[in-house]
Task: inverse folding
């Protein structure tokens, strides 16, 4: 990918002072590689730590308010569970459908794409996360371990949804002024 940036307003100001015009060329070399299993595990750990943290905080607040009246503690706990469900839907459905990343994948530099390199559709995200993830769990985690054995690093939920998790390595060089 090559970007050519012409700096006309700055260059015209430079011409008044006796300087020549400047043209900068920026070259980005992006390389897509299959995501290492350790990074995929790290991304999943970030995602689930976020959800467990919300529930743990809600439980702590419920215990603090639960001493005098039971309804205040129960309300705080119910609000915590509702918040965790909303964050899970946002993180596992909305964010991947919009940008191809959960918060954990964003933190680890990974992205979910279709097998042909195109963006994910909402239907594909729903199949991957609502059908594929439970099947990967129900196989006692073997569905996740397929990513280690598969040449493309695809787990069971990736095979079901026709997706692949990639890591984009970028190398940027700035040229000439």
Result:
């Amino acid at each position: 990918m090559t970007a050519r940036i012409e700096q006309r307003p700055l260059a015209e100001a430079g011409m008044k002072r006796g300087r020549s015009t400047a043209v900068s060329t920026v070259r980005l070399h992006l390389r897509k590689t299959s995501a290492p299993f350790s990074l995929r595990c790290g991304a999943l750990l970030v995602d689930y730590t976020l959800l467990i943290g919300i529930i743990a905080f809600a439980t702590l607040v419920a215990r603090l308010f639960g001493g005098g009246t039971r309804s205040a503690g129960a309300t705080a706990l119910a609000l915590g569970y509702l918040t965790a469900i909303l964050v899970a839907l946002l993180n596992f459905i909305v964010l991947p459908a919009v940008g191809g990343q959960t918060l954990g994948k964003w933190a680890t530099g990974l992205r979910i794409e279709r097998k042909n390199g195109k963006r994910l559709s909402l239907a594909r995200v729903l199949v991957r996360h609502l059908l594929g993830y439970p099947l990967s769990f129900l196989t006692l985690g073997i569905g996740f371990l397929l990513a280690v054995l598969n040449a493309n690093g695809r787990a069971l939920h990736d095979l079901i949804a026709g997706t692949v998790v990639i890591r984009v390595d970028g190398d940027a060089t700035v040229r000439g002024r």
Summary: DSSP finds seven helices and four strands in the chain. The beta strands are 2-6, 23-34, 110-114, 163-175.
